[in-house]
Amino acid sequence: MSHLLKKPVRQQLENGVSLVHDITSNNSDLEYVHFKMIDVEPGALYKEALAKQEVCVVALTGKITVTDGVETFENIGTRASVFEKKPTDSVYISNDQSFEVKAESKARVALCYSRSEKQLPTKLIKADDIGAEHRGQGSNKRMVHNILPDDHPAANSLLVVEVFTESGNWSSYPPHKHDQDNLPEESMLEETYYHEQDPGQGFVFQRVYTDDRSLDETMTVENGDMVIVPKGYHPVGVPEGYTSYYLNVMAGPKRIWKFHNDPDHKWIIK
């Protein structure tokens, strides 16, 4: 199995809280991005103290209450399944703070982290403020929910986005990369992909490769898997009959998303 493909760990953290994924610099090639996925039973509580990291708490499914000890956001979250294809609520919390997540119903919660040293206000990112952006053409269509895009001033480093790709389509395509600190042409951003498919027995294919092919991995990605993108191009192909969802987290030395298309394939853009 590729070292870029991460299967769910399903570890019990405490009563009512299960760890689904925990991606750090200790178990991946990532330096800037850290990611956790937790499942929380109704009434259970997850607590964490942040050091020099900021976090975006995404109510992936279910209802949660999030507090940093000063501000509290109650009963946030909008959907029972990501495949309802509607935006959800998230909370941004800056470095050197503590936070708690309480499940008001059975919930799956994404915790998206990146390096941070500058204090910013805690902010509720409301589902109502997130529009649906449609990208691509032909069999290269997808719908995007920009939770924390680079023009959103709420974060120091984090970029967070959801992408829905329909049956038989390609996504993150044509192949593009953002692994060079070479602005204004390209920014250096690491990335994680958390994947789900509908129906749940489905799979997608994801390739991660560099120009010189020193990194070239093609993975069969199943429901609940993660793919790590420390560098390189990273297209996703969705088989007929299945819908793809993925949650992207990006971070790097500068909070700018400026990508570079693979020269061999950028001709498909019309």
Automatic annotation (TrEMBL):
It catalyses: 5-deoxy-D-glucuronate = 5-dehydro-2-deoxy-D-gluconate. It holds the Pfam family KduI. Pathway: Polyol metabolism; myo-inositol degradation into acetyl-CoA; acetyl-CoA from myo-inositol: step 4/7. The keyword Isomerase applies. InterPro entries: Deoxy-glucuronate_isom_IolB, IolB_Bacilli, KduI/IolB_isomerase, RmlC-like_jellyroll, RmlC_Cupin_sf. Keywords: Isomerase. Involved in the isomerization of 5-deoxy-glucuronate (5DG) to 5-dehydro-2-deoxy-D-gluconate (DKG or 2-deoxy-5-keto-D-gluconate). HAMAP family: IolB. Belongs to the isomerase IolB family. This is 5-deoxy-glucuronate isomerase. It comes from Alteribacillus persepolensis.
